[in-house]
Amino acid sequence: MRYLSKSATRNFHPENKIGGGGFGVVYKGILRDGTPVAIKSLSAESKQGTVEFLTEINMISRIRHPNLVRLIGCCVEDGNRILVYEYLNNNSLATAILGSRGKHVDLNWGTRAGICKGTAAGLVFLHDEAEPHIVHRDIKASNVLLDENFDPKIGDFGLAKLFPDNVTHLSTRVAGTVGYLAPEYALLGQLTKKVDVYSFGVLMLEVISCTSSSKAAFGEDLMGLVEWLKDEERLLDIVDPNLKDYPDDEVIRFITIALFCTQAVSNQRPSMRQVVEMLTKTVKLNVSLLTKPGIYRPHSSSSSSNGARSLKTAGKQLVNHFANTSPQISNSYSLSQMFPR
């Protein structure tokens, strides 16, 4: 496999580089039968040990879903560790919506909505249907790949944690990408499936706005979106100005769902299965249940302390009577509560 990988990528030539994952570089390659593949070569400096690498292999090799990247093969030999994935023609969502002008793709609303729904479906599989359940921990635009039809597939499981059925939350070393980190995970190291839900909410806002979560469009503005829900025309101000002919009601619904996902208190966020139902059914969301989003700002001590304080006082200030205040995973929201009758 090592020989085939070097041959397929012309000895990992820089011209074949198509991206960089959490632990190495990704190259485009062509197998001897003409099959295009994506080859992830882990760097010598990678912090990912052999055990973590084999965990990734075992996990990916067992799961199959239309919205998850498929593992074709692997190699662990001496210091060389390589994963061979299916190749996705349109690279990553980050390249499509956040890339340079030459690589940027103007996606219509139908395609953007499909990307949100497909990514959500992939997360439902990881959270509820994969055995054992899987939390990704690093959902972001560069880890959502797009095929020739711009259908999304979630990739890069290098940071994934496995959830046994009897475990609801883990305390763990924080790993992920700033801008997508849920506050309880970034500040307290508490890892639940709701961490992925939060990241997915940020991802949705990026898809709608074509603006990176690391830029000024989010931050204080994200906090203000809850108030903006009172003025639907103003809420549409975050929509990508290059997006034309979109249904206002549906876009507002998607933004509202993203805000449900990014609430500061983890167990007030919906599950990914509930998110899929909200995305795929025409329903009127119960906006009265929304509380303020939570935002982690690592470079601002005042922001971080405020974030920690808001978590500690959330039981008094942010939690409504429809939600369980336990820090563990809770599906205390019912769909009938989110969707007023």
Automatic annotation (TrEMBL):
Cellular-component GO terms for this entry: membrane
Protein topology in the membrane: Single-pass membrane protein
Compartment(s) of residence: Membrane
The organism's place on the tree of life at top rank: Eukaryota
Annotated binding of ATP, by residue: 40
All residue ranges annotated as the Protein kinase domain in the record: 12-283
GO molecular function, one term: protein serine/threonine kinase activity
UniProt entry keywords in alphabetical sequence: ATP-binding, Glycoprotein, Kinase, Membrane, Nucleotide-binding, Phosphoprotein, Receptor, Repeat, Serine/threonine-protein kinase, Signal, Transferase, Transmembrane, Transmembrane helix
Keyword Repeat: yes
Classification via InterPro entries: CR_Ser/Thr_kinase (IPR052059), Kinase-like_dom_sf (IPR011009), Prot_kinase_dom (IPR000719), Protein_kinase_ATP_BS (IPR017441), Ser-Thr/Tyr_kinase_cat_dom (IPR001245), Ser/Thr_kinase_AS (IPR008271)
Pfam families to which the protein is assigned, alphabetical: PK_Tyr_Ser-Thr (PF07714)
Family, per entry: Belongs to the protein kinase superfamily.
Designated name of the protein: Protein kinase domain-containing protein
